[in-house]
Each structure stands twice: as structure tokens, then as C-alpha cells.
Design a protein that fits this description.
heterodimer, A: mainly alpha, B: mainly alpha, 88% helix, elongated
Chain lengths: 281, 80
């Protein structure tokens, strides 16, 4: 927290401080044709489509590895005798996900359980990065890189690319299972003939298609909006001097709820959408 | 430039206000009905709570996107 105070004094304004925390560590092609990291937000914008946010990717992949490693370790050491506390903890998570899948997914599909568990745990871990004080991870990255103007954002779910990546993957799964279960004709027929029969085909398309396309967009934007707004409020709180300590505490405690709820919602909505893809009308 | 910034701030304020008002009404209704119905049939409460969180997500989404957009207008305005 002290680091944030110093940053405010050395930086010119509050807007500069917040703006500096909103830049990604973007790797891409510069305007002159060479490849490298962007040094400002405008430069990152000019890189266009073929640029990658290294910070979000690094942290999300790292957290994914941690998730897989922890569960693998738990499974290797699982016993049917007297379980350790760690094993109990993993069982609580797995049973929680399992009961949710059982309650709202009625078809038979072996992918849904592991998918739901992965989505829940991974998004939960990525959201939890929000609770690390806003300056610590950027400061660490700047120290390691030896560059005090390095951009680094610690919360991968506050990056629209990451949340859209999740949502589009789920969207492709919805399309894949819809076509697999109902056939291409059945899948398209849902849009063409569903509310008003086949004589009102254009009207049916107008009614059904936006709802279908809104699924991935609302999934991605819900997660992104919550964490972008949450991170910004942390940044604004970091500007107020020593009074930030109780404020940070309060907002963090509230954010624990948001973190869990958003991970849960993403998992639940994935299950519900995939259940819709498996049921015929 | 200053005019754009001033208008963006006003826009952000309006977005915050309307988003807050909308979700307040929605969550008031939602939570009230949840408590009402779980008082009527307590054995259904866990099931209703799951449904409550799902509907809360649908209620929440537009306003939280609005709040995100408002923050974007305040701190890194795309029009300036």
C-alpha cells in the first residue's frame, strides 16, 4: 500500500496513475514493422489485431497450471480411508459442482462435469487476483523487468480478451452439441420455425437469432464488467492516502462475494446453455 | 476537448444513476419475492436460491456493463 502512495506523489495526477494501471503489457508489431512490447496505450492500440496481452496470458496460464497441479496432487494422494483436510476440501468443491450439474443438466454427457469444474475453479482463481493489492504485482513485474514504466495488469478477468475467449469457447460447444444432438436441420429449425410456425420465418429469425448471439456476449461482458469496475474502484481507493486501508478492507470483503458469485454464475450459465443445446423442443 | 470531457462525465453520471435505480428496483423485487416464497414453502428455499442467483445474473448484466462503460468514459475516454 505504501508503494501506491509513492506512485501518486511521483506521478503527476490521479488520472495518470489510474491510466497507467489500465495499460496492458502488449506484445505486437510496431508501426515501423518491428516486433516488441508497446510503451504506451496508444502504441498498443495501433498494433491492431495481431497483438497479445502478455500479462493476462501469463497469469491466467499460471493459475491454470496451479489449478491442475493442486487437483492432480489431491487425486494422487486420495485415500478411501481417513481423508486429510486437503482431500475433504477438494471433495467439497467437486461435490458442489457435481450437485449443480445434476440439478440442471438432464442429458447424458461426460464432458459437462469436468468442464464445469474447470470453468468454476479457473475463473475463481483468476478473479481472486483482484484481492492482491493493486500495486504489488505490477511493482514486482517492474522490478523483475528493471523498467519502472512497464504496464502490467494482474487480473486476467478484467481483460475483455480473456473473458471473450471463455465465452466464445462455450458458444462453440453450444453450436457443436446442438448440431450433434438435433442435427443441422433441427438446429437451424429452432431459429426458423420456433415461435410462430414456418409461415412467419423472417419474424422467427428476428426473434430468435439476437437471443442466441447475445449468450456469449452477455457471458463475457458480465464477467469483464464486474472485474473491470471492481479493479477501478480498488485503484480509486488507492488514491486516497492512508484512509485507503479500511476502505480497501471493506471493498475486498464485498468483493469476495462477487468473485465467488461470478465464477458460480459463469459455470451455471454454461451448464444451462449446454442443457438447452441438448434438449429438443 | 474540454467540452467532450465534460459531456462524458455527465454521461457517466447519468449511466451510474440509471443503472443504480434499475438494479435497485429489480433486486428489491427479486429479493422480496425470494423471501416471501421461502417463507411460504421453506423446503423449497435452496432450490429457489439457485434460481435467484441465476436471475440476479440476468438482472445484473446490463447495469454492470453500463458501470464498466461509465468508468471507461471517466478514466480513459475513447473520444478525447
Amino acid at each position: 500500500m505504501a508503494t501506491s502512495h509513492e506512485t501518486v506523489e511521483t506521478a503527476q495526477t490521479a488520472a495518470d496513475y489510474v491510466g497507467h494501471h489500465l495499460g496492458f503489457l502488449t506484445f505486437g508489431q510496431h508501426a515501423d514493422g518491428s516486433w516488441g512490447f508497446a510503451h504506451s496505450i496508444d502504441e498498443a492500440r495501433e498494433m491492431g489485431f495481431w497483438a497479445i496481452n502478455v500479462d493476462s496470458m501469463l497469469i491466467s496460464v499460471l493459475l491454470g497450471i496451479i489449478f491442475v497441479a493442486v487437483f492432480r496432487f489431491g487425486i494422487k494422494n486420495a485415500t478411501s480411508g481417513k481423508p486429510s483436510g486437503f482431500q475433504n476440501f477438494l471433495e467439497i468443491i467437486v461435490e458442489f459442482v457435481q450437485s449443480n450439474v445434476k440439478n440442471s443438466f438432464y442429458a447424458k454427457n461426460e464432458l459437462i462435469g469436468p468442464l464445469a469444474l474447470t470453468i468454476f475453479c479457473w475463473i475463481f482463481l483468476m478473479n481472486t487476483m483482484d484481492l492482491v493489492p493493486v500495486d504489488w504485482i505490477p511493482w514486482l513485474a517492474q522490478t523483475v523487468a528493471g523498467d519502472s514504466h512497464l504496464f502490467f495488469r494482474a487480473v486476467p478477468t478484467a481483460d475483455l480478451n480473456i473473458t471473450l475467449g471463455f465465452a466464445i469457447s462455450v458458444f462453440f460447444l453450444i453450436i457443436f452439441y446442438s448440431i450433434k444432438i438435433k442435427g443441422l436441420g433441427g438446429f437451424l429449425g429452432e431459429f426458423a420455425f420456433h415461435p410462430f410456425g414456418k409461415w412467419a420465418l423472417p419474424l422467427n429469425l428476428i426473434l430468435e437469432l439476437p437471443g442466441f448471439l447475445a449468450k456469449p456476449v452477455s457471458l463475457a461482458l458480465r464477467l469483464y464488467g464486474n472485474f473491470f469496475a471492481g479493479e477501478l474502484i480498488f485503484l480509486v481507493i488507492a488514491l486516497v492516502g492512508y484512509w485507503q486501508l479500511p476502505l480497501h478492507f471493506g471493498w475486498s470483503v464485498f468483493h469476495i462475494l462477487v468473485i465467488t458469485l461470478q465464477a458460480y454464475l459463469f459455470m451455471m450459465l454454461t451448464i444451462v446453455y449446454l442443457n438447452q443445446a441438448h434438449t429438443t423442443h | 476537448m474540454e467540452t467532450v470531457q465534460a459531456f462524458s462525465l455527465i454521461a457517466a453520471a447519468i449511466i451510474f444513476g440509471i443503472c443504480g435505480a434499475g438494479t435497485a428496483v429489480a433486486f428489491g423485487n427479486l429479493g422480496g419475492k425470494l423471501i416471501e416464497s421461502s417463507a411460504r414453502q421453506p423446503e423449497l428455499a435452496p432450490k429457489l436460491q439457485t434460481q435467484f442467483f441465476l436471475v440476479a445474473a440476468f438482472v445484473d448484466v446490463i447495469s454492470i456493463i453500463g458501470v464498466g462503460m461509465a468508468f471507461l468514459f471517466i478514466f480513459s475516454n475513447p473520444f478525447v
